[in-house]
Amino acid sequence: MKIVIATTFTPFVKSGSTYIVNGLDQSLKQRGYDVETFHFPFSDRPDEVLQQATALRLIDLSQFGDRLIAIRTPSHLLKHPNKVVWLLHSDRDAHGGSDALEDEARRQALLSADNIGLRESSRVFCNSVAAKIRMRRHSLDAEVLYPPLLRYDQFHCDGYGDYLLYFSRLTRRKRQWLAIESLRYTKTPVSLVIAGASDPDGEPYVAELRNLIHHYQLNHRVTLLPGWVPDDRKLELFAGCLAGLCFPLDDDSYGYSSLEAHASHKAILTTTDAGGVRELIVDGLNGLVRAPDPPAIAEAMDFLYTNRPATQQMGAAGPPRMKELGMNWDHVVERLLS
Amino acid sequence: MRIAVLNNCVPFLRGGAEHLADALTAKLQEYGHEAVLIRVPFRWDPPEKIIEHMLACRLLRLPNVERAIAIKFPAAYVPHPNKVLWLVHQFRQAYDFWGTEFQGLPDSVRGRQIRAAVIRADNHFFAEAKAIYTNSKVTGDRLRRFNGIDSEVLLPPLYDPVEVEQQECGDFILCLGRVNAAKRQHLVVKAMKHCKTEVKLIVAGRPESEADAVEIRNTIRKDNLAQSITFIDRFVSEKEKADLLRRCLAVAYIPYDEDSYGYVTLEGCLSKKAVITCIDSGGIDALVRHRETGFIVPPEPKVLADAMDSLYSDKPGAAAMGEAGFELARSLNINWDHVIETLTK
Questions:
Q1: Which of A17, B22, B158, B236 sits most deeply, having the most CB atoms within 10 A of its CB?
Q2: Structural domains in chain A?
Q3: Shared domain check, B198 and B140
Q4: Mean pLDDT of A264-271
Q5: Shortest Cα distance, chain B CAs vs residue A57, angstroms
Q6: Last residue in a domain, options B154, B181, B207
Q7: B183 pLDDT exceeds 60?
Q8: A63/B contact by beta carbon, under 8 A
């Protein structure tokens, strides 16, 4: 069976969707399929989005391959008689712009194009219940298909240290600051490691985090590691941490770092407003869920520090929980080719 | 520099241009650049699709890219303010193939319109590039003849040049590469019965179709030449290839009308072996000078046999030709240092 995968990307910028596309490409090839993967460059400039969507619409793949799997929007506009779509992120940030008439018209046009692409597809998959509900409102039926980790087996557990790990892109929406704000209310000596690459223009945010640490005099309890973290260092950070933190503001996706923490047998502390990660974490089973309120979070941090057997048990519940949700490539391949 | 290499792609098909694009991308990275290969699908059937894919390329954008290097139509149309072309060929159906059996496009009003649109668009959009290079003199000549566009030849190097070790001057002529009708290995096989010396032949390469393999096998049987011809009818590893090149007397590479100088030719030169080619082989003569670095002869078995015999009878002469070919290849600057410097300046 021949399979074409298509996605869009910004050249030279690491992104979750490119990572998943590469994982899918590799997983299909490992299972003996003939795979051809296209990464189309895509500029997010509002005045260039429509013409690029048109470009993809003009490209006709209908002679090639038994199935097209379209990932990042608007690759589902590509023509193919046997197309499935796996939407990995919501479009509400994309194609932004103002309330001006021109921008409004552009959004409408993209929405119509989006609907054409989705309705042509024999199946639509999304990566969260939130996305599924949103699409339901547009009368589109989608099946939730969670993106698995690419190198699950590399992660391991090397005990439970005294630090909580927030491993994520350093960007305001991920709310690393909430972790720092919470730490000052803790009563135990639990510490915090914040690591991840910052956005290209993310220096002000990193400076803000630094100031906050300094301001609360938490220098000895918070380690900030901004920048790309090499793989072996990352594995080590996860292997040795007490538990993982995940505080994004309403992200659709549960975030790879949650899966990485679980693959390292670590529990995850998250917030009620974090979005997709709530689909993974059941309070008390494989992590803790608290209101996005520093004293409440601090109390949970102390709990993880003090009640080691419970923390360890919640960490151990991670892998079975991932399996239950179908977060593995066997399941993903089976669904995308069904 | 952040560099995008642009190529088009017919899904699930790979050929010389795909290898060149992969090699260029990998070498750019090796030389310290950030490089990404961007492949745009291309389809020409029905012919109207050609126009749609040309338009698609015009509408695409290359954000976050500082330099684009495009090697093929229509991917070369993707706009970028800092673009250079390294064309491996144009859409030949609209150019030198037009009026031949390879034309592809229908000879109808619609077909002629599409052909004209391709030529007009090439004229217009190639002009956006800061510099235009071609992979061969043949490609460059065509670009001048049909489009009036000047270009410079930049010969593509081998990805991993063969190491010149202790060479032997063996008894056999070597034919390397994919086996098919256009590469004409069968002519060299048919030449063998006309040879007057004890010269041997090894044909090594994966046959493109069963028919290609059968033609060679049948000739060997019919001419009763199983003793002097070896047919290795499969993919030959780099290691096996290097060993064959080291041990052979000379290389024969006689494709019909190829644009490029042919990797096999360069492999022969870098192994210090004389190369036999034909007068209608095309760009091969960039690396072969008649009676200096090899033979350029008419595509006829008897004449090919004469060339093979004279190499066998005068091995010191054959070795000298090999040395001369090696020097010629070196003087042409066919190396990645030169290519990367040229394409990124």
A1: A17
A2: 2-145 (3.40.50.2000), 152-324 (3.40.50.2000)
A3: no
A4: 98
A5: 8
A6: B154
A7: yes
A8: yes
pTM: 0.86
Looking at residues A239-257, what average pLDDT do you find?
Answer: 92
Pick from B9, B59, B84, B69: nearest CA to B34: B69
Domain boundary, last residue among B92, B119, B154: B154
Higher pLDDT, A33 or A88: A33
Distances (CA, A) of A262 to A184, A319, A333, B305: 26, 6, 22, 71
Residue B345 lies in a domain: no
A51 touches chain B (CB under 8 A): yes
Q: Which of A251, A297, A314 is nearest to A277 (CA)?
A: A251
Are A59 and B40 in contact (CB < 8 Å)? yes
Assigned domain for B66 exists: yes
* Alpha carbon distance B84, A67 (integer Å): 35
Report CB contact under 8 Å: B61, A36: no
Q: Report CB contact under 8 Å: B41, A38.
A: yes
pLDDT(A98) > 80: no
Mean pLDDT computed over B14-43: 94
Taking CB atoms and an 8 Å cutoff, what residues of chain A touch B40?
40, 59
Q: Does residue B164 sit within a domain?
A: no
Count CB neighbours of A168 within 10 A.
24
Among partner residues B45, B56, B63, which is closest to A11 by beta-carbon distance? B63
Residue range B208-234, pLDDT digits in tens = 889 999 999 999 999 999 999 999 999
Domain tally, chain B: 2
Nearest to B60 among A12, A41, A44 (CB): A41
Distance CA B194, CA B311 (A): 15
Cα dihedral B9, B13, B17, B20, rounded to 10, equals: 100
A34 contacts B9? CB cut-off 8 A: no
